[in-house]
TrEMBL record:
Known cofactor(s): Zn(2+)
Residue sites binding Zn(2+) per the record: 106, 109, 146, 149
Protein name, per record: Transcriptional repressor
A molecular-function term among this protein's GO annotations: zinc ion binding
Residues in coiled coil: none
Amino acid sequence: MDELPTTPEAANHASTETVLKRAGIDPTPLRLAVIQVLAREGRALPAGDILALVQDQHRANKVTLYRILDLFVEKGLARRHSSGDRALRYCLEPGSAGRPHCHAYCLRCGRMECLPGVEGVVDMAALGPALAMEVVAVEVRIDGVCAACRRKPSVPETPVDAGSGNS
């Protein structure tokens, strides 16, 4: 699969249209808007944020957005990630299938950042034989408090629930 546009400069109409066509997806205006938002933002976003950004330029509703996001996930263009606040986040697939895609998740503000260049975090070649299975994907999420939240004055607030098994 071709490398997807993951920078604002690459998130233009021509490159995103090409990515959709190569994935066998008809590049409708709304699909183009969604992939451009994901490419421009360069991080994992909840569907509500994607919808708000798309609605700045197009009429769209939640049902249509979720269908587009599901199609992108099905075709390998995007990944769906769980988060501590139980809202799914979506981001562009980093290019080659099977490459570990890691994220940093802030327990206070809920922001999820994609972490580039983390191929060494999980040894995919060794993981499969060790588990006696064919590993097709790995999801790693690092939970903590982001720099912006650490700089804010301390306010008694309940952190976002990290979910079970994430400690």
